[in-house]
Amino acid sequence: LNYGINYAGAWRHPLTPYQERDDNEPLPLHPQPGGITYRHWLGLIYEEPEGKKRLTPAIVVREFQRKKLPEEQFRVWAFGYDMDNMKPRCWYEAILPLYRVPEEIRSDFTKRVAQLIEAAEYVAGLLKSRIKEAWFKRPGEVKGDVGFLADGFYQHTEADFYACLPRLIDAIPQNKDPEVLQEWHVTLTRAALELFDEWTGSDEIAFADPARMALARDNLRKQLYGTKLAKILTLPKPKEKAA
């Protein structure tokens, strides 16, 4: 069977973003379950600033940004198959906004965006774990895919994420970017608690225990106001608010 051309070596397909690996040949990026979300924005539009497996944009995206074009809102269309052992599982696509970032602040901008994304991924993981604790007596033994919980969180916070980016561009030259990170912390915290209440308060979850749900929510709130999330966003530990 012909599964297509396997591009390897120094040549890169101009429409394909790549995953750079230390001391290894770069790998073309393929969509994964959950689709293309703002988690992938930095690697698809600019470049992730660090990491053993960092993403770099397609050549056409990098070349486009080198050109002097009118001050308009441009977008990047990202698409592809989620493959499993050379079998397509799903087709994903997304339209991602492209913002003009001055060269002199681009390094700081990409580092700050990486913080926004890392914080969102951390909170999405917290939310998924605490909801499982609310739903099930032994969450570690529960089988089945609950990835839709994290997917719902990213969808819920997507508009807020993209609203942060132009604010970062304006804030960095004035050294006000910590204010944007603080706003993002507020956004993530509010979204996580709202979605927890929505998913654990559903009438369909009749088997949930009220005491277990209350404990899981309390643990979620403590972690949202804990030191780890504050460290990711380089913020002082926030004061926990009343539920």
Walkthrough of the structure:
- The structure is a single chain.
- With 243 residues, the chain is of the alpha+beta class.
- The protein has two domains: 18-98, no CATH class; 103-232.
- The protein is 47% helix and 15% strand.
Task: Summarize, please.
With 243 residues, the chain is of the alpha+beta class. It contains seven helices and five strands.
> How far apart, in Å, are the first and last alpha carbons?
58 Å
What structural class is derived from the secondary structure elements?
A: alpha+beta
Which sheet architecture does the biggest sheet show?
3 strands, antiparallel
User: Could you report the average pLDDT, rounded to the nearest whole number?
Assistant: 85
The helix fraction, in percent, is: 40-55%
- Output the radius of gyration: 20 Å
Q: Give the DSSP E fraction (strand runs of 2 or more residues).
A: 5-15%
Total domain units: 2
Overall spatial form: globular
Order of helices and strands: EEHEHEEHHHHH
Oligomer: single chain
Total of DSSP H or I helical runs spanning 4+ residues: 7
Spatial arrangement of strands, main beta sheet: 2-1-3
Number of strands: 5
Poorly predicted sequence stretches spanning 5 or more consecutive residues? none
Helix and strand layout, with pairings?
Layout: E1 18-21, E2 24-28, H1 41-45, E3 53-56, H2 59-66, E4 74-84, E5 87-98, H3 106-135, H4 147-171, H5 177-200, H6 210-224, H7 227-232
Antiparallel strand pairs: 1-2, 1-3, 4-5
Helix pairs in contact: 3-4, 3-5, 3-6, 4-5, 5-6
